[in-house]
Amino acid sequence: MLVLSVLILGTAGYMLIEQLSFVDALYTTVVTMATEGNVVHPLSEPGRLFTIAVIVSGVGSLLYTFGAGMEFMIEGHFSRAIRRRLMESKIAALRGHSIICGFGRVGSRIADGLAQARQPFVVLDEREENVRNCITRGYLALQGDATSDAMLCEAGIEHAKYVLVATDNDAHNISITLSARHLNSKLFIVARSNHDEAGVKLELAGANRVVSPYTIGGQRMADLAFERGGVE
Predict the structure, then answer these.
(1) For residue 207, what pLDDT is reported?
(2) What are the E-state strand segments in 61-168?
């Protein structure tokens, strides 16, 4: 945008000051920015002063753009942008897949289970570290807020079959469930409940199943204790 602005202003300036045609004014601006010094005809004094301004701003904008581009590539932004584009293409091709919202202790177990079953899925998580962990494991993942309709659409919710809401925040889980149900009424939604009172709200929000990891874990421990007691 910086370089383009100098080109536009330079071309317009030469057309007004030196009465050049559009092509001649554009040519003069380009060769001036390139510091070649070839002009269509000798410039007037205002034209020479304007040329000084074009040289300073043009060279400055080109150097800045070149530096920013090199920084973009050296820091890995370019490769990350390519990887993200490839990731988005793979996700856009999915059909009947699952969307896992949250890649914490619960979400990672869900992802591992689906991967072992060779079921297609996409992970949505706000934390860059969790997304990198997903990519390292070979999972499709997007970094962003799963409560956002835009992020759910980017994860292909229109063509998804299941949504597994597994964040450690009940308010987020309720919001995600509401958004997912609104975007796709045919989804089968399984939501995590971290507190007892959140279970009812999740069902009202549209969850088909509500799971409390703490309740399941506690019940399993009690069953094992009673089973051990019965054996003795």
Answers:
(1) 94
(2) 98-101, 121-125, 140-143, 162-165
